[in-house]
């Protein structure tokens, strides 16, 4: 008998309450927000992560991004590029190699240019990402922290949380010439 006592329900007939519950579960799955790998907030309006994918688009949309700074030598993935264009986001692609002992080092000019994009209020909120959100992003964030006046120990602790110990990157962060970062004082964020 059905709960109202009106007799047996035909086989396969789903009660309306169960049908609504199933619909709600399906909607919740579709609306599920998943941050990209190694996602974190660096400062108000500045976020870091690994390369986003389709599962992350709903999450990123909630950040109301204006721009993306991509730190990698390879081309931007077409699916993310198309999504960013649909969302009206500006993409700043800085072709940066990873630091590898003994011969490869990140280009300081390219890093300085990326920092100018990240630290311009007109581009915020911004997502800064590389492939895994560890080494290149870690170096850039380390330079942001130096500009903020963080201690060297705290910078390296934050770097290690995402990337572990990588001496080449730690040296890059410490030796990076901050005078190369030419910020527009009129457009730099209040927290800097």
UniProtKB/TrEMBL annotation:
Keyword Zinc: no
Keyword terms of this UniProt record: Cytoplasm, Hydrolase
GO MF assignments: inositol diphosphate tetrakisphosphate diphosphatase activity; phosphatase activity
UniProt main location, coarse: cytoplasm
Cited Gene3D superfamilies: Protein tyrosine phosphatase superfamily (3.90.190.10)
SUPFAM superfamilies according to UniProt: (Phosphotyrosine protein) phosphatases II
Protein's cellular compartments: Cytoplasm
GO cellular component: cytoplasm
InterPro entries: PFA-DSPs, Prot-tyrosine_phosphatase-like, Siw14-like
Domain of life of the native organism: Eukaryota
PANTHER family: TYROSINE-PROTEIN PHOSPHATASE, TYROSINE-PROTEIN PHOSPHATASE-LIKE PROTEIN OCA2
UniProt protein name: Siw14p
């Amino acid at each position: 008998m059905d709960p109202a006592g009106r007799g047996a329900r035909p086989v396969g007939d789903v009660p309306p309450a169960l049908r609504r519950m199933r619909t709600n579960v399906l909607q919740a799955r579709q609306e599920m927000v998943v941050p990209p790998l190694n996602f974190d907030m660096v400062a108000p309006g500045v976020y870091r992560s690994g390369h986003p994918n389709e599962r992350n688009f709903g999450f990123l949309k909630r950040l109301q991004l204006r721009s993306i700074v991509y730190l990698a030598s390879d081309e931007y993935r077409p699916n993310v590029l198309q999504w960013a264009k649909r969302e009206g986001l500006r993409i700043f692609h800085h072709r940066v190699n990873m630091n590898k002992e003994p011969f490869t080092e990140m280009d300081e000019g390219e890093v300085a240019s990326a920092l100018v994009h990240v630290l311009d209020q007109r581009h915020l909120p911004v997502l800064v990402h590389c492939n895994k959100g560890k080494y290149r992003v870690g170096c850039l964030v380390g330079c942001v922290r130096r500009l903020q006046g963080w201690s060297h120990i705290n910078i390296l602790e934050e770097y290690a949380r995402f990337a572990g110990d990588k001496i080449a990157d730690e040296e890059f962060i410490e030796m990076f010439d901050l005078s190369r970062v030419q910020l527009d004082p009129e457009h730099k964020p209040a927290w800097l």
